[in-house]
Design a protein that fits this description.
Length: 717
Amino acid sequence: MKTFFTLCFLLMPTSWIWAQTSISGKVTDTKKEALAGASVYLKGTYDGATTDGDGNFKLITDEKDTATLVVSFIGYENSEQKLQLGKPITLTIVLAESKNATLNEVVITAGVFEASDEKRTTILKPLDIVTTAGAGADIFRALQSLPGTSQVGEQEGLFVRGGSGTETKAVIDGLIVQNPFFSSVPNVAQRGRFSPFQFKGTAFSTGGYSAQYGQALSSVLVLNSNDLPEKSQINGGINFASVYGGYTQRWEKTSLDFNGSYFNVGPILFNLNSQNIEWHKAPQGYSFASNFRKQTSATGMLKVYANLAGNTLGLTAPDETTDSGKSTFGLKNQNFYSNVSYTEAFDKGKLYIGFSQSFNKDDLKLDTADASRGDSRTQGRIMFTRDFTNDVAVSVGTELHTYEYKNQFDEYKTSFRDVYWANFLETDVHITHKLVGRAGIRNEYSQVIHRWNVAPRLSLAYKTSDYSQISLAYGQFYQNPNQLYLYINKKLDFEKAEHFILNYQRIRNDRTFRVEAYYKSYSQLVREFMDEPFDANAYRFPYGRTDNSGGGYAQGFDVFFRDRKTFKNSEYWISYSYLDTKRLFANYLAKVMPSFASTHNFSVLYKRYFSKINLQANASYTYSSGRPYYNPNEQEFMSAHTPAYHNLSMSFNYLTSIGGNFTVIYAEVSNVLGTQNVFGYRYSADGKNRIPTSPPTYRSVFLGVNITIDKLKKSKS
């Protein structure tokens, strides 16, 4: 829970900043036609605006000396110009139509939609994430407001289109993250480890993704880290749960930063927010991180990132298998992650080299038993991309991973080591001006199971008008069995999924509409065969016979609409997903909808900027239909359903200045109505006693302050 509250901060809307210099003007095309919805911002800052229906814009900034104004719009070349700040500035900016404004380069504020994985990918900027009410500045929680996801509050993971949490992989700068979440705790969905402000954008693929990625049956979350910061600065803050601080030093072509935090959730939050969990040790911990950036040439960049963290907690959890109905759980976690990447562009080509290491160890106390679990991963990746003609580009790459898992319960120890090797080749072709295709193939080898696979990927997109397009995608995806199964059976095969996707999107006047239908076929899923009754505990250790005879399907459609045009200083988006899925896997007794899936998921987000009072207000509402759960008193397996999930959350960010330094005071109320959501039920062996699985708290209130000190500002004489 390290980042539990470390970055609900920096919540800076793009329509106001402490008054110093006023910048206004108009944006048009070469025919002098106004461009409505163009993005206007100062490079390296959060100061920006969007043009109105007449192409006009206005922003106010407290930046000093000089700044670079950037103007961008879909289908047009970006405009950048250096400004001398201090006095009011009025500009007329003319954008030229992009020479490469082809289908696979369509870009919108909410995301990028291309002729393959990115075609169905939604990119969220850091501010989109931290201003999503109820998400608590957590990347994974914010993504649950997008179509294709399910609301699962009792275990960590991103559950996409009927897939389990382990079927989604997080990737940072091209490299898989071994432990993107904090360590598992019974009936508590853990947060992601990384701050959204570490990344330029967050790309979420709901399926049919590129051959560049593997080991994910459902989806990938691609995170690309920041380049050089704009300037040196000091940042710090305090809230109900943590204190944190950071220092960034920027030289001409190099930067170095250090960040540290300490959190203790108990002292204030436990008293302020009623708990459904009996804690005997409040979650607390620390983290230290550092980033190094070096611009090695005009087109080259070296990035080095390292993070060390630790945390402890203890709780008493409901347990229907014990006489007391309870069991104790204690956790002490240590985690280290490092990532190094180098990119260099050449004439018509680009080289990427990446390397990462990670280490994670959990010392557990389960009642009177001592247990531990740990893992480590080392990986390297090389990729080269080249444009052979204006219409054909080819990417080729290879990656190698070595990882190890260990598990212990008292005297019982298990472990295994794997070497995973993958190669991929992908070609992008502009078949005509309106038709774009991508074909790729990926092959993988896993030493622990001594298996190879070959996975083809194919996608096409056709431009139906100046503002819309339709696309098709097909792909095969493989994933190693869960490590718990590999402890006991190393003769298993890869699990497999096939994706079929049809997508339509329309982007115009700063409005985005997308609808997507899909069918996903599962095969070779691992099944367990046990002599004892079904055990619904998601944290159990399997011990029966296993094979790859499982399978299933997921089908449905997603709808997404985002509007930044209709209401002044406001934006909203609406998501809806319909899911029909069944699978036979794990220790399930029949092919049924799994307990982590729900048929209907709906969410609405609204954000409003009140520039006169320097306040941003955000609200979100999420609905999810009931999820299946196992009731031993029912004749039909997994036929019972939980009540529907409802959550209305709000957050507020007040912008001010303390000592001339930009300051944000932020507050959030999650589940304002205090709806008593239930994620499932557990039964005693005789089926007479039932224990609900509830969130840690029904309603939570949070408050904090963040201050940014620009160390380059000149002191007043």
